[in-house]
Design goal:
alpha/beta, 35% helix, 630 residues, 7-stranded mixed beta sheet, 22 helices, 18% strand, 5-stranded parallel beta sheet
Amino acid sequence: MELNEKHMRQNFINWLRQRLKANGEPYSENTIGTYASSLSTAPSKLAGIELETTNLYEITRSEKFKQLRIVIESAENYEEVNKNAGNKAFHYAMQNYEEFLTELEQGTTSIANDSTLRASTSTPSRTDIDKNMILYGPPGTGKTYHAVTYAVAMIENLPLQKVKEEINTLGYDKILTKYRKYQENGQIQFTTFHQSYGYEEFIEGIKPKLDIENSDEGNPSISYEIKPGIFKQFCERALAPIVQDSNEYGIRKEPTIWKVSLGRGKGNPIKKDCFDQNRIRIGWDEYGETLSEDTDYSQDGGKNIISRFIDEMMVGDIVLVLHNERTIDAIGVVTGDYEWLHDVTEYKRSRNVKWLAKNIHKDIYELNGNTVMTLGSVYRLTRITLADVMHILTELDLTPDASIQENNNRYVFIIDEINRGNISKIFGELITLIEPTKRLGQSEEIKVQLPYSPEKFGVPNNVFILGTMNTADRSISRLDTALRRRFQFAEMLPEPEILRSIDTPGIDLCAMLTKINRRIEALFDREHTIGHAYFIPLAKDPSIERLAHIFKNAIIPLLQEYFYEDYELIRLVLGDNYKNPDEQFIQTKKLNVSELFGATDHIELDDKTSYEINEHAFFHAPSYRKIYEQ
């Protein structure tokens, strides 16, 4: 078989599809496409070297490729080209292609024929989305729009192309409806990074708490509490077991976990009675059965504990019964409202429970963030989750019925403008935990002790992280290299073809945007091109007035930002340099120095050129048409 570059490219792609990365995960279709593309496009951008070919698929022998690779890596701009390929894709592509050629020569892999190649390209065998992805591109390329598509594909475990086909068939609104449903269900969380965003908002931090109800004369007292951040809460949601509305144990969907002391700890008559009679009991009987705002708690205290027991504890909550400061000896589910027991002599305040486990003496010190339990009769165990309780029951062979199941749903955390935040500050130790092999339940699972709680924390395997990044944003530092290593990147480029169906009278929007972007790429770079999304409003209103509004309020300001108000370059982008003056968006005007200042013999002043926006051009179709017609 003739080994032309097309055959070699497709066989290399098929070979990559069978490979696994160092972390044991398969390559995504996006990564494979980036690698495959770089071998034929990146060499032509190298400077200071001579190559016999810039399409590396023409090289079919490993020894010859090794020699060529040495020359390539000696190019004066090799590092820049490698970086621009995306996540050092050119380096890794050459590394893999050399291995592919070696296996061909050793006979451990083979070349497929034309029919096999056609079959392999038409039938994707798996999803093409990684655990951590960033959608990047110039402004207006629909990164947020595409994030909806990616999020739905992630949650439904579908190839991206499958979801795109669904959009083509049923419309984007159908996918958007799914996205919103998953968002309402808590499976999608959206946040935006900014320069003051920090670890405290993302993972956890110490926050002030105002106590208005118990304040004196309207002056609220301030206390401080450890509050989980948005990502930590999201991970806890992804770990929480799925509780059906009706389950054998009566556990509600999002139960509070309470610590309860029965009697005076360890074994005692009060606890024995509670275990036998399926209830929990607390004291402060001296206040009587009926409490009111006038009840005086000053002598014996207990106001907050009684309030938690009567008003805050809910049917379906879980109680862990204190044995000693480190261990519990029972787990129960609250099944009844508060009642006053008339037939007992003490500890008359009671609630019915269903015991899931008794006399277990389970150490929960580590689960409780290496914190001992206090003598307070009733309080929330905020560090312990329903998942932790289910794990204890599983260890005791007391796993609840099928109505309470492990959470196998998929969750997507979307970070818009991910490159605008200080990644090291925001992610902290989490930067390691997000790696696929370091997730909970994976081969290299890692949990770290958080600095504030101090809880043990890991990232669930069913959480996907999806970021968006504007490549034209030069106001911030480069994206953190540690983050780059842990994310796969999908480039979103302008798609002028999308505008072909928009019929703006006398103007070819596709040709116009294509020419503008080619000029920007020549004068600046492709990261500063203009996305098609700016012109999408014309689909509903294809009038010259709407186009004028877009140009005046979006395109011209964007070009002013790109070129630092160098209007001569902006005129080149818009083709104003060869238009009639009345067709120019930006007109030139000579400033006559002598006319302005009179005789200036003692100062040398040259005539200047000023620029002004021509309002008429925005409503004149030839002004747009002559951008692409010369």
